[in-house]
Amino acid sequence: MSSPTEPQSANPQAPPDDAANGPQPVEPLEDSVEARWAAEREQLEDRWRRALADLDNLRKRYARELDQQRESERSKVAGAWLPIVDDLERALAHAGDQSQAIVAGVRSILDQALHVLEQLGYPRDDEAGVPFDPQRHEVVGVVTEPDREPGTVMEVVRPGYGRGAQQLRPAAVVVSQREE
Questions:
Q1: In CA terms, which of 12, 24, 150, 163 is 20 to 30 Å from 63?
Q2: Do 130 and 153 touch, CB atoms closer than 8 A?
Q3: Residue 147: which domain range?
Q4: What digits encode the pLDDT tens for the residues 160-173?
Q5: 0.85 cut: is pTM over it?
């Protein structure tokens, strides 16, 4: 039985007092579950799209860095060839009365070295008679030539290798100037 302090309910099956105010609206269980699933699916799709974008950006950055690294290594290798090419050219210039077989052998080695440099993207630049270009040439001397246009490359002292932004070294040249 019940204690004297507890009120007795006429109907023990009756709902609590909250329900006495009328029926409460109840969301259908299916709608709330579908809404949560849809929200979770949207979050997952958003995270998936962001991950794909991050992966694409990473792939592009890696490709750029790989190209830069290749260019850097190609430049190092080609730069290491320059002293060899210079020495071979000096050997040919001082060959004088040496055996033609030796001279032909050294010339063949020089041609192979120049071919390797060209394949690496650094063609030889040793043109005389062209206008001076500060991007390609380094002035090491000036001569007065009345019958030449001022600023013309008269002599190439040391050939340059490469073109434009891909230049190992500029050509060292002697340039004409106006008569004063």
A1: 163
A2: yes
A3: 127-161
A4: 998 888 888 999 99
A5: no
